[in-house]
Amino acid sequence: MGSALPLGIAWPESNLIPALLGHDQSFHAYVHIPFCEVRCGYCDFNTYTAKEIGGVSQSDFHESIIREIQVSANVMRQSGYPSKSLKTIFFGGGTPSLFSSKQIGAILNSLESEFGFSDAIEITTEANPESTSPDYLRELSELGVNRLSLGAQSFDASVLETLDRKHDPARVAPLVQSAKSLCMDTSIDLIYGAPGESLDSWKQTVERALSLGSGHISAYSLIVEPGTKLARQIRSGELAQTDEDLDAEKYVFADRAFTDAGLDLYEFSNWGKPSAHNQAYWRSQNWWGYGPGAHSHLSGNRFWNVKHPLTYQNRVTESTAVAGLEYIDKRTHLEERLMLELRTSAGIPMETISELAINPELLASCQDNGELMVIDGNLVVTDKGRLFVDRIVLQLLTN
Fold first, then answer.
1. Which uninterrupted H or E stretch holds 380?
2. Cα–Cα distance between 352 and 358 in angstroms, integer?
3. How many domains in the chain?
4. Looking at the predicted structure, is the pLDDT value of residue 29 above 90?
5. Using CB atoms within 10 A of its CB, is residue 193 exposed (0-12), middle (13-18) or buried (19+)?
6. Residue 369 Rama label (left phi>0; alpha psi -120 to 50; beta)
7. Is residue 78 part of a domain?
8. CA atoms in the 13 A half-sphere facing the CB of 346
């Protein structure tokens, strides 16, 4: 069920959301499907198994999401946002592949009806190997889904067991090949740093992932979130502590292997053909997040939905499902740009650094010690600095 929502102010009774940062942003949609067959031990996302959602029917839950899509379109029109076609749609979760293709299709039809689709729209769905089949991928492709993000996580069965993942690693390759045969872009999602995972195990996972010929790979370091089963297992001594130094070695190996294979880094955890949807987040574009606990951003307005599926259904039937809202001032917006854009290979324009009034001596020091450099007018983190980017951002903003 994830961590608690942030605090915020109430949604305005007027239903009007002013464009605090203007109307230059592109528009995107995130759809959160909150259902999972089994809760993974490390997961802190807003997800629910069948036993946890009494009174909620998965088979018609898409109808509530469609209702929110209609509400969002009215809010944007009434607030004076210019009509903009959707550039990307991302189905995340939870496990989106637990929705039938008919449910996915109904949501896509609603989004297209309310907003329209750009000519080159990217439509991604996450999927778990155990709940996906070649026939299901074909049905999604016929609906316009053109990108598959497959949650492989590891190709080591013992690591998958530690993570409470239930699929057979052998299921991944046929699904990737099926997606490619349908002309879908593919992404392999990996996690490194599970308790007990050796460097050799991780190397084999990287090599197996590369052998699939996917055009994109994401690799994220495992974060042990408080309150999860994994955190309790580590605290009790049932599982070993994670090792930050070993994780750094794993990251360096993966970066070198992916780059050597022709998958260029474009964000610290992502290699290959860039995801237009992810880039929208990193560049602070506009998106509406649909579904329980989903977060949205509209021109300096950040808001988030109530978390529980039943509460969400009840709220969205009456009006909006938003639980809280915050307004982002210009300074906060610039600071968030620094945090996000420094994670990308393109970096952040020096003009933005000037607007932030960052201490020039500190900036020079970071350049002298090889953590930052300026390329084509942008401040970019070096290979060395990547391992310490959070600390670098904190230093730049507090000194």
1. strand 378-381
2. 10
3. 2
4. yes
5. buried
6. alpha
7. yes
8. 9
